[in-house]
């Protein structure tokens, strides 16, 4: 007669997986385990918005994940765009330098229904009678 007794336990994943390519972007790094880092850059004529370096970290309850969402590449000097994910960066063209006259920048931030979007301004300047900021969404628009 043969007997067998075994026990097991769940071991969380220690890999984040490939975070994927971004349009007009380049990914540097091919290892996706906890502690590994990858770096994003953009092709000529585009600038990176978001975190350039992502680190694979241990996430409580879910194994491993990247510490930030993948960034995106926008055309150099362009104005406006669409942001998705849990974080993002909005800036005027050529920031911190001044931008051209008559720049019309429109940004869209996409979120799930019920989510709250918080805007945190770290450097904000308007030129009287020429610049304005309008924030609109499901609530009444606000203008400054």
TrEMBL record:
Database matches in InterPro entries: CUB_dom (IPR000859), Sperma_CUB_dom_sf (IPR035914), Sushi/SCR/CCP_sf (IPR035976), Sushi_SCR_CCP_dom (IPR000436)
Among CDD domains, the record links this protein to: CCP, CUB
Q: Which UniProt keywords apply?
A: Disulfide bond, Hydrolase, Protease, Serine protease, Sushi
User: Which residue ranges does the record assign to the CUB domain?
Assistant: 79-144
Pfam families listed in its UniProt record? CUB, Sushi
Sushi domain sequence ranges: 14-75
GO cellular component: a single term: extracellular space
User: Could you tell me what this protein is called?
Assistant: CUB and sushi domain-containing protein 1
Question: Organism source for this protein?
Answer: Anabarilius grahami
């Amino acid at each position: 007669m043969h007997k067998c007794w075994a026990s097991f336990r769940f071991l969380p994943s220690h890999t984040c997986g490939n975070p994927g390519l971004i349009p007009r972007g380049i990914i540097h790094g091919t290892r996706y385990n906890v502690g590994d880092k990858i770096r994003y850059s953009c092709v000529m004529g585009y600038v990176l918005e978001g975190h350039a370096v992502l680190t694979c970290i241990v996430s409580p309850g879910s194994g491993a994940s990247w510490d930030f969402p993948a960034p995106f590449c926008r055309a150099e000097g362009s104005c406006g765009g669409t942001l998705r994910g849990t974080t993002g960066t909005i800036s005027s063209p050529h920031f911190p330098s001044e931008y051209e006259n008559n720049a019309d920048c429109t940004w869209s931030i996409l979120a799930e229904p019920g989510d709250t979007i918080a805007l945190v301004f770290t450097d904000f300047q308007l030129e009287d009678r020429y610049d304005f900021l309008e924030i609109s969404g499901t609530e009444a628009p606000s203008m400054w």
